[in-house]
Amino acid sequence: MEKICIGIVDDQKLFRESLATLISTMPNYELVMQAENGVDCLEELKTISAQPDIILLDLEMPIMDGIELNEQLQKYYPDVKKIILSVFSKERLIARMINAGANGYLIKNCDKEELFLAIHSVYENRFYMNAQVMKALQNSSGLINKGLKNLNNIAIELSVREKEILQYICKEYQNAEIANELFISIRTVEGHRKNLLQKIGCKNTAGLTLFAVKHKIYELVF
To answer: How far apart are CA 32 and CA 30, in angstroms?
Structure first.
């Protein structure tokens, strides 16, 4: 397995250094960047040779907080994935950050097993969703029971077959596996997947999964 390059942005020095030490003990992880606020992070990204695959990002920081930094990373470093590590657990904030492009959200008192599970999941699948994130997305959505709207807030309809295929996509089934389960051709599955991406207005499986969870088309089991 190739190494996962990690960055840490947190103004709490003790927490940041403890997290750095923890990451250094893992053979498949490499810490390539540390910063104490958003401005420092953006400056670091201009100078380091190896860009982080994932940044572990605090929200409450001086000069530039995690909310603004997340926006800047989305704009200028779209390939860098972000996992929020915060003391704040309000559902509206969690939903806001996920909808703004964060790839995962963890509370700082999570255990190290979940942290590394989240890192691996975000690296492999571009997102990590636990029960807390799923609940926040569903409870914050004003679209439930009011019809489906895509990411551009345009009303859409999904057929029974499209919802069925979307559920399999959320379960990380490949096209061939979905075709085998539903007794249809791989080309048909590919067509449905393409249509779903276009209808929903997202670019990848992570976007499809977030949409499906938000609208209760698919519910994760924990």
So the answer is: 6
Is 107:84 a contact under the CB 8 Å cutoff? no
Q: Give the C-alpha distances (Å, rounded to integers) separating 50 from 2, 30, 46, 57, 180.
A: 14, 10, 10, 18, 41
User: What CATH topology corresponds to 142-214?
Assistant: Arc Repressor Mutant, subunit A (1.10.10)
Contact by Cβ (8 Å): 112, 22? yes
**Per-residue pLDDT reduced to its tens digit, 166-218:** 989 888 888 999 999 888 889 999 999 999 998 888 878 878 888 888 888 87
- What CATH class does 4-139 carry? alpha beta
Report residue 60 as tokens: 């409450």
What is the per-residue pLDDT across 114-151, written as a single tens digit (0 to 9) for each? 999 999 999 988 889 888 888 888 777 654 445 677 66
Mean pLDDT of 62-81: 91
- Per-residue pLDDT at 13 exceeds 90: yes
Helices then strands, counting H and E runs in the chain, come out as 10, 7
Helix (H, G, I), strand (E, B) or coil at 9: strand
- Helices 38-47 and 66-76: crossing angle in degrees, nearest 10, is 30
